[in-house]
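A favour, since you know our structure tokens better than I do. Just paste the record in under my message, thanks.
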Amino acid sequence: MSEHSSPAPKSADDPAFTLPASLAALRLPLCGGGLGVMLLGWWLARGVGEYGDNFAMSVYLTAAVYCTTIVLGSLFFVIIQHLVRAGWSIVVRRIAELAMVMIIPMAILFIPVVGSLWMGEGILYKWDNPGYGAEHGIPEEVWTEKLRWLDEGWFAARTVGYFTVWTLLALFFFKNSVRQDQTGDKAITDKMQYWSGPAVMLFAGTTTFAAFDWVMSLAPMWFSTMFGVYLFAGSILGAHCLLAVASFVLQKTGAMRDEVTVEHYHDLGKLIFGFVFFWTYISFSQYLLIWYGNIPEETEWFYVRQLGTWGGVALVLIFLHWMLPFAGTMSRHVRRKPALVCGWAVYLLIMHYVDVYFMIMPAAAEGAAGGANGVIASILCVVGMVSLLTGLALGLARQTKVVAVQDPRLGESIAFENI
């Protein structure tokens, strides 16, 4: 990982393209331990205050949305690389492909979220309580129209639809990429590129409405047409951070040492820097337009998040999700040091969780933060879910290559140099 020089091409069967045994051995402990830690976090969250079930489901939803956004960001990364015929990213694209297939276990992990709609009135989503409109003085005709969209069955059907689309897209690109490893057929690249355009449109529509359904509807009378883009901004940032961390860990354990170079870390660093700014731009734009408009049903969402503990979290996002990483990843010298790129990527993955937490948890338990026990429960739940998905991804990686070894642009990717 020193200054870039193009290595001699390797055989597709070279051990450098397989998952290192040290990582493969972690798959079962990560799956078993992750599941146990996740359930422990959910159980601890149930004991927080008088709103235990609501708080526990909100903690679980936060972990599920966090993981889903990174998985979806990885799916978008793969689609967009095919759409623009990118060559530089081939050596890291398989990592994103392995991550995007985790949309299948995420669909299973989302069952409790949908199931909460039949577990009681308003356990997670307040609109699931038939008396919510009357209790909050919402005109009956307005609330009736709102419930045309926020209906248990219709909500569940849309969620199934979202995951179906994402699963089909992920499997299409993953299976074709793996098939190319085996056959070397260059036509497969053209096929994936051809379908990447429609895939982007399907991705954009489904992710936008999923953001509206799963997160925005926690405050049923609040709305923002930018909210889908806001969630996407953190999603794509998280995906690039995942690529940097996974590439660094794989190289440290012996895989693709010559294929992923300083040049690739430099590009990942640039993209991380760019999407930090993009997230900031979208976040501030949404806030500015709504706050300046000063319409009560629109400003309430932000008003709640400026009070007490949540006001502190808002400041954390301003200074630690924007200013610090913006300054820290700006320098070219930082981006050309793999360890520093990996360090900033880990940091931003943590901050992305804080961002998702800030979106979801103020709606839980009448805005209660849950104190130290609530924070511990939240951390356990997300760490457990991330560990479970990591173990599953390692199990899948063990069955294939960690680099798309037969992609026709692999040589271009290995020889890539920044200008």
Notes: The chain has a mean pLDDT of 94.
